[in-house]
Amino acid sequence: MKIGIVLGSTRPGRVGDQVARWVHARAVDRMDAEFALVDLRDHPLPHLEEPPGFSGRYQDERTREWAATVAACDGFVFVTPEYNHSVPGVLKNAMDHVHVEWNTKAAGFVSYGGAGGARSVEQLRLVCGALQLADVAPQVTLPLAAEFENRTEFKPGDHQLAALDLVLDHVVAWSAALATLRRGDADTAIRRRLDAIVGGLRNKDLEALRRCYAPGVVSFDVEPPLQHVGVDAKLENWAKVFTIFEKVDYELRDLTIAVSGDLAVGHGFGRVSGTLKNGVVSDGMWVRATFVFRHTGDDWVIVHDQASVPLDFATGRGMTELAP
User: Fold this and answer.
1) If we measure between CA atoms, which residue out of 65, 59, 61, 130 comes closest to residue 99?
2) Which regions of the chain carry the CATH code 3.10.450.50?
3) Contacts for 161-165 with beta carbons within 8 Å, 24 or more apart?
4) By CB atoms within 10 Å of each CB, which of 47, 62, 94, 305 scores lowest?
5) Which CATH fold topology does 203-318 show?
6) pLDDT tens digits for 195-253?
7) Residue intervals in the chain for CATH 3.40.50.360
8) How many alpha carbons lie under 13 Å from residue 94 in its C-beta half-sphere?
């Protein structure tokens, strides 16, 4: 499980980087999750320019990179200041840029400012509700006058560690509890992607198939060579199928999918069948099929697949007559 520690200020002279490093240093000693520092300075987004919608398809490359960063996390700790009784504009903008990548995850807060950043967090909780982020009740509030020497050098009291541990406990627990829902959503999306492959094969639509694969997909198919690298090489294989079959069908059976973050693995049995160019109906053969998916921020795409049949070592012949 991966928790993102989101530093919500990019302001020159910010003190938030000291706070975020304090949170990260405490968190990385835990054994129940991986913690990654996510600095919005590393994700310079324009003012919101994406069209409205909740599809997870984004036009701007900067948005897609940000979406992939958010999608890779199972929960978040937002480190935020309070500007004029409110949320930093850069943080609100970053949250507004994507949607589905936030859904069904947990969020905790570490805030700082004149009033400890409490009013910023109150508004962030409303934003989290709209983004389907489950905000946990405990929070850390760090008043500038009490926790910062000369209001610039972060020197928290030891009592703040207990408060931080409580926030981390809740974020990890809620992230784990919500994992079942997240896996369910991902499972549905991946099965839709595989349905798109079946539809592309039946329609002999190479462009529809192209959208299902990563540009650098590596495929271990049943025919030589040992590997086919890149989406063009993968589509050449499917194009060969279309030259053999007048009408193509494809069937998947016993498909099992396991999801972890932005990666997923599926395995089952697949069969290409249909009517050959000479009019003969072919039942084809069953192969063992494995798929590896990655979520790119837009959708799940196949980064690796493998099709194989068992080998009879005595004869050196592939056993193509087996069926699930």
Assistant:
1) 130
2) 203-318
3) 161/26, 163/138, 163/139, 164/22, 164/23, 164/26, 164/110, 164/140, 165/26
4) 47
5) Nuclear Transport Factor 2; Chain: A, (3.10.450)
6) 889 889 999 999 989 999 999 999 999 888 999 999 999 999 899 989 999 999 999 99
7) 2-179
8) 25
Query: Measured between alpha carbons, how far is 199 from 211 in angstroms, rounded to an integer?
Result: 12
As a whole number of angstroms, the distance between CA 133 and CA 78 comes to 12
pLDDT at 182: 72
pTM over 0.70, yes/no: no
Strands 105-113 and 75-81: parallel
Question: How far apart are the C-alpha atoms of 223 and 237, rounded to whole Å?
Answer: 9
109-137 mean pLDDT: 96
- Only one residue has tokens 């493998």, namely 306
Beta-bridge partners for 213? 302
2-179 has CATH 3.40.50.360 classification? yes
